[in-house]
Amino acid sequence: MFIVTAKEMYDIDHYTISEIGLEGKLLMENAGRAIYEKVVRKVGEKDRIKVIVGSGNNGGDGFVIARTLQNNQYHVSVVQVVPDEKIKGDALVHKQIYIKFGGKVNTVSNHADLSKHLADTDVIIDAMFGIGITGKLREPFATMVSMINNIEAYVISVDIPSGLPADEGLKDFVSVQADYTVVIEAPKISAFLQHTSSYYGEWEVVTIGIPLQAFQTNVRRVLSTERAFVESLPKRKPFAHKGNHGRGLVVGGNSEMPGAVGMSAKAALRAGAGLISIGTSKDVASIIASQCFEATFQFLAETNGFLTDETEIPFHNFDAIAIGVGLGREPQTRKLVKRIVHDAQCPLIIDADGLYHIKNELSVLKQRTKPTILTPHPGEMARLLDITVSDLLVNPFRYSLEFAREYNVFLVLKGKYTIITAPTKEQAVNITGNPGLAKGGSGDVLTGISLAMVMQGQPVFRAICNACYLHGRSADLQVNDSNSERDLMATDVIDGISKVYRTYTFR
């Protein structure tokens, strides 16, 4: 499933109409009918339904929805919030058809008139404004929207809640607060932003006949799905041995945080790595050895409980390396991080304190010839960019893409909706997971899973997408089966990995 900006969606529509030859009137009919099929699952036969229409395609969809509801004997009427001359083109065609079907259109010009028509309404279908809105809604529409939000009715939005920006970058807006949104063809970027996603309520996508090549030509941003995970994860060969599934190294741990590196190693093994070594001090190794019997150890020098750059690491022995979990922020450790980033000739994952140490060494990343994966949470990402977290979260797709391209890295910006970005411009959003992951150690587990995945013979971008999917899906299954979002711990997520694999009958 693709994720689009407003411009990309317009380009896709234009391609479909001008190059493929599907008329706009037909696409509007398809949209209205597809949305109707979703609407009737949410409304009752006795519900009083008002379809609020504006200009443009969104309003045209509203006329089709209203006509289809009326023709199936639902109690529905249309309230038009723009003058008649604003209804043009395909929308006007469908307005006229609706009227010929016996439908009535009530035109209003202010919120007071709208309020009269919405009295005793059970369901509001919001088809006022679509993705064409730029900036904050003007009056009288801003007040109309605020009024709708204060009415005791179930609100269904068509494609996008009216007034909500489709794209990132806008903080100041007035939007319908939908209970349910029926998205046409592809979710818009705002469905995945912290400050806008809640306005959609529950949402589902309907298709209306847009050809696949229209998306493939215009969009490089996708939703990471169960289907992609199942179809792309490599199957195990009957005569495989442990070396076929990757030799990984996890570098981290200090006397104050010994457990993190152990969780990463265990997660990597549970996710499918063939061999995992833990690069840490002898003291940390003695603490975590009983937690992960299957891992081996690469003992590194330390001073006062923190690792130092005084031990030779046989980089050639490993197919991928992860560094940073539980590492600590002591200055003496920075040289170790920089050396590994510079010398490791294999895929490298940098997380947690590793990100702290490379803040002033980002130029080293550009020199690497093997894939580099950074896995920051928003606070860590904002620090790398020297911006505020709030600024980052308003533009996470843009900032992620710019950073990935500039430093030639794969970037995993963690959150409720994790954004995975490749230096070649591909982006994916992972939506698995739940609030139970908002707990210490969850990121360490993702690092371990990611380490395993990049060693399983997949393209790096696909491997990272699969790691994020597996991590979140494990948390979801644990909450469904044995935990709650309150008591879920990182070690529970490790245990849930096997449930995910069993769910999809992997061997």
UniProtKB/TrEMBL annotation:
Domain YjeF N-terminal span(s) in chain numbering: 9-216
UniProt xrefs under SUPFAM superfamilies = Ribokinase-like (SSF53613), YjeF N-terminal domain-like (SSF64153)
Any idea where the YjeF C-terminal domain is? Answer: 225-504
- BP GO annotations: metabolite repair; nicotinamide nucleotide metabolic process
Q: Which residues form the signal peptide?
A: none
Q: Which cofactor does it need?
A: Mg(2+); K(+)
Q: EC number(s) per UniProt?
A: 4.2.1.136, 5.1.99.6
Q: Which GO terms describe its molecular function?
A: ADP-dependent NAD(P)H-hydrate dehydratase activity; ATP binding; metal ion binding; NAD(P)HX epimerase activity
Q: How does it assemble?
A: Homotetramer.
The molecule here is called Bifunctional NAD(P)H-hydrate repair enzyme
Q: Gene of origin? A: nnrE
